[in-house]
Amino acid sequence: MNYSIQLSMVVVFFLSALNLVIIGSLLYGRLHNSIAEGISLEQQRRLLKLLSGKIVDLKQKGLIINYLNLRETIELNEQTIGNVNKAVDIFKSNRNYLQKLKSRSRIKRIEAAVFLGFMGNDAARIAMEKAILREKDYPVKLYIANALTEIADPESLPVLVSSLKNSHRWYRERVNMLISDFGDAFNAYLTQISGSELIEIKELIVDFASVNFSETVKDYLLELIDCKEEAIKKLQTLYGASTEKACRNCIFYAGSEDQDKGVCKFQGAVSSSYVCQRHQVLPVSVNYKENYTKLVYKAADILARYYPKVLDHPKYLSSEDIELRNLAIQSLANIKTLGNLTKVLSLLNNEGNARSVVNSVTKIIERNPSYIHVVVKQFEKEKDSAVRLRLSEILANKIAYFIMKLGKQDGKAVGDIIKQVILLGHTSEVIDFLNKNKDLDLENELLAIIKDVIRQSDKHKNEFKRYLNERLVHKCGLIKTEEIPAKKEEQKDWKLIRSLYLILFSILVFFPTLYCLRHQDILFTAPLAEQVKLFVIDFNYYLAYYSITINLIYLTLLALSYVNVKKQLKLWRIKSLSLLFKPKMLPTISIIAPAYNEEKTIIESANSLLNLKYPDYELVIVNDGSKDNTLEVLINYFDLMRVDYVFDNKLNTKPIRGVYQNRSIPKLIVVDKDNGGKADSLNAGINISNKEYFCGIDADSLLEDDALLKLASLTLDKGVETPALGGNIFPINGCTIERGQIKDVRIPENPLARFQTIEYIRAFMAGRLGWALTNSLLIISGAFGLFRKERVISVGGYLTSSGKYAKDTVGEDMELVVRISRLMRELGQNYRICYAFNANCWTEVPEDLESLKKQRYRWHKGLIDILTFHKTMLFNPRYGRIGIVAMPYFLFFEMIGPLLEALGYLMVIAAFILGLLNAQIALLLFISTILMGVLVSVSSLLIAEKDKTYFKLRDIMLLIIYAIIENFGPRQLFSLWRVGGYLNMLKKPGGWDKPVRRGFTAKV
């Protein structure tokens, strides 16, 4: 036995033993129920000891965090809390955590802040007051600020306020709201800081006023508004009249004692948004005048809500500043008197005030429905057509009221109002009413008005023809025609096809060329049959080396994933619900769920998404021209009505047919649109959405109730912009679902779905977590991803033929992440794209070969399309690790790799037939394809259960078995399908090719 075979045997033994150790850890952990269930058995014993009043050292791992989490979920009685206070070794624990506050580890500093906040003694408070001023890491600084506000000693106020100076906006926005929790104590402290010219102080007081109003802050806000021009002139004096942009953080140091630090003027930048290297965070407009003016408008808006009478003054109602004037008008809506309504209506003839007057009168009527007769009388006597139109817009909100008054004493006036409202474009409620109405006389009265309208407007004629039921359309003298969707002409991308042929040709000639170079000495002398055998042997070695290389990459990513999971787990356990649910701590989120032929799963999914644990979110379901009853199922189940919904078309999409809502379920919005694909549906949802971030999720998926909370909480860990975040995906096949909740987790019964379970766990745990740690993550699953809305709009939204780039893609999830990363790198902007290993989304996976094959074809086509569309990033140092490492990896190992594997399999078969599979080749192939593959899979499974046990012992054993047998056929088949996707790109453009869903059942 030669040396290479002996070495291979050693490697086989080592990897086999390592696999057995990991498998043993999995099984042992399941048997003893201690793999990472939030609190292990030992931790439970320590916690019970603490609660019973026995002396403990809080230095013991995880004890303080477990105790704080327990206090959040269970209300402890005073005796138990007293026992804990007696049991804690105050001196020893305090000293330990005071030392940790100076640790080099940011996680230890955060842990120290949480503990010291829990202790709440003077020593802890003083130590944290010193620490917050020297701390440079903003997430750590935020935890210290939160701990000080939990202690709630007014002595900390000057330090907290001081920590805002020269700090990131990311930090200021959150800490301003924490300081607001001091309430009366901060209100008393205001006199000491109200004279400051620092913008940070002005922002703080305005934010405080938004939640804690008093006479003191009222006077401050009024002064801020009245001195607006004077303050801006002061800034102009300091910086000159130049409109040149500057760092949006540094610009506001003007007039402060830190003025000598100056302004970070940018040189040679072409972007209209700029921050200096010291303040890299969330770029927005940086013109000092604009920013100061926005602060003034925010102050006016607060006054309009709390002290509306102070804005009821000619200097505000007649201000040359249109926005300020509109805010003053809107404040009048909060003064509930009939005379005030008359005053607001008198302002309708000014076009600049129109929108504010309409909104104000609408609010007044909503609060005092009896006042509607005043607006009706004004409408009847008004001669100015423009004013009459504005009055009809106000009355449009009460269209149902006027419909019910048709045919009565004042029927003619009511008919005029309804006609004006319809001509204004408010048709949704009229159509919805008619389709449900049973009163024939009322129907005839209303149809008479509609007939008059459709004689004047083809646009309205088409809308009524489209949405009224067939009987009503016939009564209007129209013919209801079936809509035939326009056929999409898909053009071949010949440039792409030529590139793919070139790659294919290069691969086919590369290995023969390599053979010729290696064996040129026998090239023209040895018999052809011998040379063929030698070529086959060489190729088998190449396949083994390729497999070893890619598995070594997986193992490296796996090691990085393990490090990432440990960090995430520690940070998640530190975060308290009270912190996460504080105002402005986490971003507001719109969940956008595209739905195409999802009638079987849509209600379960919607119920799940409407019951998430998150402070502020909405759900936007986008029906993408489904051919089944998806829309009807939603309308009937949630009792939805078609409404006139106003939104901005910031992204071009296929036409919106209608928007549906139920006022008793305000966070649910259903959008019906023409079919345009998933990416187009997501763009439509972005246009409709109202929150800071949006979460793209498949409509056939279910989120765990805390998944969104875990994912969004990563924004607190970085202190820089997080434009995109991804969550974990598990197959839902086999699970028991009740009312949109997973009641019992089981692996699928279907063997094909079981193979996909292992594949998903490996891809997410061994891949994406590792890439995320190096800030090189390029894929966030379309089934569950979180994106900053403003950033996505700035890059043109998802790639569609209707959009900015006039191009479709079937890999919209990865493409958007790549485009965001590309933009951030080109702007030189500091950012992180994150991945949460414990934020779980459960989705249905295909259970038949044909559906799975279509899915894999689609995935590979998407990858090819993205790599060719963003080819300038490949090997480009400008894009950092993404250009040098991540993109080349996807090119060589994900796009081209399957072609090499397919050729390798052919050569293995040829070697077997020719009897050329010697012991060394067999051992190398066994090591590279079987042992290393199993190692990656079972290690990924171990990482997946780091935080929580998902699968029962039987399921774990089955997954281990499938992790082994998948290497003997299934993985090779999946790889060949990717080759099929590559070859398919040479024939025709790719489509979405949505697979048929079975739906959620008691056991899928």
TrEMBL record:
Domain Glycosyltransferase 2-like: 590-714
Matching SUPFAM superfamilies: ARM repeat, Nucleotide-diphospho-sugar transferases
Record keywords: Glycosyltransferase, Membrane, Transferase, Transmembrane, Transmembrane helix
GO MF, one example: glycosyltransferase activity
The keyword Transmembrane is annotated on this UniProt entry: yes
Pfam families: Glycos_transf_2
Sequence intervals crossing the membrane: 6-28, 496-515, 543-565, 889-915, 921-944
Family: Belongs to the glycosyltransferase 2 family.
UniProt-recorded name of the protein: Glycosyl transferase
